[in-house]
Amino acid sequence: MQKRADHMLELKENMLDRDTYLGLRKQVGWVRLSDSQADAALANALYTVCAYLDGEPVGMGRIVGDGAVVSYVQDLVVIPKAQGRNIGGMMLEKLREYVVSITGPGTRMMLCLMCAKGRENFYESHGFTARPTEVLGPGMICYIDK
Predict the structure, then answer these.
(1) Sign of dihedral through CA atoms 41, 44, 49, 55?
(2) pLDDT digit string, tens, across residues 48-73
(3) Mind listing the pLDDT tens digit for each residue in 32-51?
């Protein structure tokens, strides 16, 4: 726990529950998930972190991937009223620390993400490289609707 500007900030690892996950997604205007999607997303995450400010959930992040070659930062959010306090940066550091802890000796793990438009500078300030570069093509996505 850290006391920051008269507020108590706590980062809880691997305790993110469905209601908190769905509630935080809703507060930042993300697409609504079904309960079964949320349950599967949380069950299949390698690691989660959730930020609480004065006991109220204000942010979260997950690591997904194979845990050996590639890991992804997923669902890193801080609700609008809690932004500007470095909560996102602290959670991103916890996510990175986890990936470092599971990277095998003498190996390399790719830590990837897709950020929301306008958030590139935040991730670049934390050591991520925006694509495309001279050697890396652009990231791509394909949505599957059913």
Answers:
(1) positive
(2) 999 999 999 999 999 999 999 999 99
(3) 999 999 999 999 999 999 99
What whole-number distance in Å separates Cα of residue 143 and Cα of residue 146? 10
C-alpha distances (whole Å) from 64 to each of 93, 99, 118, 125 are: 15, 10, 23, 22
Q: Which residues does 46 contact at the CB level (< 8 Å), separation at least 6?
A: 62, 63, 64, 65, 67, 71, 98, 102
Closest-CA residue to 123 (of 84, 93, 79): 93
Helices 35-44 and 18-27: angle between axes, nearest 10 degrees: 110
Asked whether the beta carbons of 131 and 113 are under 8 A apart, the reply is no
Contacts of 71 (CB under 8 A, 6+ apart): 46, 63, 64, 65, 99, 102, 109, 110, 111, 112
User: What CA–CA distance (Å, rounded) separates 73 from 62?
Assistant: 6
Half-sphere exposure (Cβ direction) of 101: Cα atoms closer than 13 Å = 9
